Amino acid sequence: MARTAPASAAPGASEERETSRNMRGLNALWPFLKPYRGLLLASLCALVLTAGVSLTLPLAVRRVVDNFRTGADALLDQYFLAALGIAALLALGTGLRYALVTRLGERVVSDIRKAVFDRVLGMSPAFFENIMTGEVLSRITTDTTLIQSVLGSSASIALRNMLIFLGGLVLMLLTSVKLTGLVLLLVPAVIVPIMTLGRRLRRISRENQDWIAASSGNAGETLGAVQTVQAFTHEAQSRAGFAEMTETAYQVSLRRITTRALMTVIIIFLVFTGVVGVLWIGANDVRGGAMSEGTLIQFVIYSVMVAGSVAALSEIWGELQRAAGATERLVELLNATDTVHDPEVAKTLAQPVRGAIRFDDVHFTYPARPGMPALDGVTLDIAPGETVAFVGPSGAGKTTVIQMILRFYAPQRGRILFDGVPLEDMDRAAFRRHLALVPQDPVIFAASARDNIRFGRPDASDAEVEAAARAAAAHDFIAALPEGYDAWLGERGVMLSGGQKQRIAIARAILRDAPVLLLDEATSALDAESEGAVQRAVEMLSQGRTTLIVAHRLATVKKADRIVVMEAGRIVAVGSHDALVAEGGLYARLARMQFTDGATAA
Length: 602
Ligand code: ADP
What we know:
- This protein is of the alpha/beta class.
- It has 21 helices and 10 strands.
- A hairpin with a 2-residue loop joins strand 4 (413-418) and strand 5 (421-422).
- The model is unreliable at 1-20 and 598-602 (pLDDT under 50).
- Adenosine-5'-diphosphate is lined by residues 129, 366, 368-369, 374, 392, 394-400, 550.
């Protein structure tokens, strides 16, 4: 596999984000922090308190030292008592700050996780065609964890160090203008390497994260198709592919580590060299009597504090920038625009819902496949209660018809009406309530058989679930499972046969009890017994409902009121089985070829 950069690390994308001045990315967190202003304020108070207390310590030290020398022993005890009080304040303030700040971080990140999931869950399929699920997951987990570490600690460490830096600087000036001036002369020597290496660090961090996201996306895809991978003995390639991505992520992280280590070395060395130099000059002043010992010690402690805060800030800087990048990626998800929208003011369906569907000159091209219309002027009226079978060669647009009724996509031209109301005039969730879907590849969730069926209507009673299972010819095999309806069906139903999964999916749709049934028949052949059971279940289900079936079996087609023959996104014929066979067109050919196996099975 060629080692190209992962999709989200496309040079354009990452550079564009970097030049958008990363720190501002963190502003996007404000809406999430706003509801917890009280907590934020309390955290700030604890933070200012501890920083303030730390800054008073050197003053106390000077007094003790100078008093000790002049022999004012009476005051000495009081100073030590005061030191004890300060220590208690510091301990309390620090504990409080930790508790408040960490809680704030956890709270806000939980909110962000929920907001992102809510947003993504509502997106139409086109969105998921452009972003890998693994990438979404890594944004919800890794990126939010980065933000959590910033809100829950780094931000407060940064703020405390900024306070100590500023406060320390002022107190240094008050202690000795001359020595402070010398220290400030050294500042540019420290700032320049921070800026240069910091920029490099930011770029590498971003690249590192992109590779991690790419490798977990790759793993997700491979594991999701593990049987296909094994069946094609593709393990070696899959292993190599994943290993290469993971290894690249590691190599990039090595660069990150080296840069950061180098940065730390340079900064600490420069800062302490400066301190030693200043100390030397200060020591000469003390010898000449221009300054007391206590004052020099006080000054030194302040400069060490200020230098320490600069070092801490430089360490945190990279982390803040990583979090800014993470915030940008999350905001990108939160602000993602969808191709399908609900109207501002939604129309509702007249009760009772009848289930009439009309396609009015519908033209549709998948966003991922421009220039290749999937539906090319489809007009069709489906009466309430009617059963319509869609047949045609693979790629004709049959499944697309189902997808359009679900309004997973919006047509570019023409419209679809449900009981006379255009789909785009209604809330998607509102009219989907009147649809029951049996997809071609039935989805089984990692839950019990009961909960899998109840997915169709979460408030259904156990008796209703069982009745639906009976109607779907699923009761017998479920009852025969070791724990019956409570049996865990495993991830994606690996324990069930294809026919069993379909019957669960049908039971789910029966339970939903919707006026419109959308059924994408499985293309894979079932054994004769399953076939018969599924067939009877479908018949049960379609009674009294408008039913659209993407049909692959002769038995299904023969039971339909009408057959719609599609080819290349158009309807080429409509009629009954006998009439269409007599016509001798595409349908007659399909019936001869495609349905022969089905006919023998039925
Ligand atoms: P059928 O169900 O009749 O086999 P489909 O409705 O699935 O056909 O597909 C119609 C056309 O649209 C095909 O050319 C198919 O490749 C294309 N198509 C289907 N789904 C997508 C998609 N998500 N993105 C891009 N093209 C798609």
